[in-house]
């Protein structure tokens, strides 16, 4: 039986609209693949606004220990990609960790 995710790790960053497509491609190529290999699931979300574009990456984990093993330390510490400083408006200072209370996707 597949493990059910109990914890979500959420990263948010924003870029200028003229760099959004470039950042999306970069994040898909370098940010998402390590998560696909280690997490139970991953989502990359994009919100285009007039002045900025927000990206949200949500990875799903069985527990904090598995997340800590992946991050090799503090799971709330931000691990920036090498080009984040160039492509993002500012470097995100934190990661959010949420316990999953309802997961309807896995009940269907």
From TrEMBL:
<dbReference type="InterPro" id="IPR011008">
    <property type="entry name" value="Dimeric_a/b-barrel"/>
</dbReference>
<protein>
    <recommendedName>
        <fullName>Antibiotic biosynthesis monooxygenase</fullName>
    </recommendedName>
</protein>
